[in-house]
Design the sequence.
């Protein structure tokens, strides 16, 4: 599983002219689910993200987590994160999980965060989305559950 996360002051997602989700201060997460992702990947990502110390403390040092600041999550599914651009000029997507299964993984991940008391807004799975954000910093990180757990 790959997650591109951005620390934001605000973010929103619109689908077909309607607001699907929006947040204030927190994390905009673009989530790509891989063909071989398992419960271990879900558990790793679900546990890692809320505890990452990437928000500023009183000394303006990255020392606080999403949980500590009471932040929100905007989760946007993005299969293109699983794209392979290493050969030719057109990305290959054989590493992405099939949509039906990927949606279940995405929903399981967001449910875990909600169970932790984190406000979670979502895009529309497989929707043609317009995402707007105010990246704070800018601060952007890439998590890959296969690499990060090594």
Sequence:
């Amino acid at each position: 599983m790959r997650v591109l996360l951005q620390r934001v002051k605000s973010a929103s997602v619109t689908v077909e002219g309607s607001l699907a989700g929006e947040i204030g201060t927190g994390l905009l997460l673009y989530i790509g689910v891989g063909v071989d992702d398992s419960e271990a990947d879900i558990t790793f990502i679900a546990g890692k993200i809320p505890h990452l110390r990437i928000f500023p403390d009183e000394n303006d040092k990255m020392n606080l987590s999403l949980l500590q600041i009471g932040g929100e999550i905007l989760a946007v599914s993005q299969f293109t994160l699983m794209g392979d651009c290493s050969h030719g000029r057109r990305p290959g997507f054989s590493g992405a999980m099939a949509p039906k299964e990927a949606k279940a993984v995405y929903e399981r991940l967001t449910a875990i965060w909600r169970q932790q008391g984190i406000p979670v807004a979502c895009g529309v799975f497989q929707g043609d989305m317009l995402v707007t954000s105010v990246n704070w910093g800018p601060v952007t990180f890439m998590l890959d559950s296969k690499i990060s757990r090594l």
Observations:
- The domain at 2-148 is CATH 3.50.80.10 (D-tyrosyl-trna(Tyr) Deacylase; Chain: A;).
- Residues 67 and 116 are 9 Å apart (CA to CA).
- The first helix runs from residue 39 to 48.
